[in-house]
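Problem 12. The chain below contains 321 residues. Write out its predicted structure in token notation.
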Amino acid sequence: MGCASLGGLYAPVDAETCMATLQAASDAGIGYFDAAPMYGLGRAEHMLGHFLREHAANIAPVVSTKVGRLMTRQRPGLELPPEAEKNPLDAGWQNGLPFREVFDYSYDAIMRSFDDSQQRMGRARIDILFVHDIGKLTHADAAAHHWSALTRGGGFRALSDLRDAGIIGGFGLGVNEAEVVLDAMSEARLDCTLLAGRHTLLEQNADTLLEKAAAVGMSIVIGGVFNSGILAAGNTGNRKFNYQDVPETVARKVDELSAVCDEFGVPLAAAAIQFPFRHRAVTSVLIGAKHPDRVRQNVEWFERPLPEELWRALEASGLVG
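Solution.
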């Protein structure tokens, strides 16, 4: 389960609903939870940590979070750098905490981010750390600076040190672009990667990465399988695509995908959740939810048997590769 919604993505979510949503996921057998300091500027990690400590102490979940952003405030003795220009994939937080994010991928910052996440979640060990949003899509002209901090500035070395010490299980990248993962694979031994929105029914832009990951044994987790909601709701519901309003070309393709799915009596969302697993490199998908009913609906779509003929029809129509 992806926990961005618990940070107030698109709409506020109160603490009681957060706990109920996480409980519904646990009751359904979901045992992997992904958070990030960015989500609600620390709030999602607090919500997840509280649930796992106080309501689910008898389970042993897999937990991942991310590094690359520090949640902080200016104070005497701490002068913050100028605020980075808001990137188009950042939709903001409706009930986030009163902190400011500062990008930093250096050795010391990676270690501090890990320490901070341990504190927020109350966990001595974190299973997976993803380097969050490294690359041009987020950083534009500052990408080279942040890449240097991650590589020559010791960011990857910090992650390797944590893995060698056994206090994280592994690390990789958590990004919205495939090319930067390929670059990172030449710099460090990545255990897994979280790729959001690049291998979905609407977009298949990561074939080179998926094939290389399969060849070297790097696990791929696919996030954003609904492309920010459009593949769950169709054109009659939440018209968001990759965190933004839906372009007409995308809306037309959604209609075409829906029409093929309708021929087989398959909900578009069920096909969207299950499609990524058709590649052997994909080991998990992350689905966000902000209400228990959404969790249960997602599980139903995930478990729904789909006919092989559906995939053949989608391929024959040229809608998927």
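Discussion. Residues 192 and 218 are 5 Å apart (CA to CA). Students who got a different answer should revisit the alignment rule from Section 12.3.
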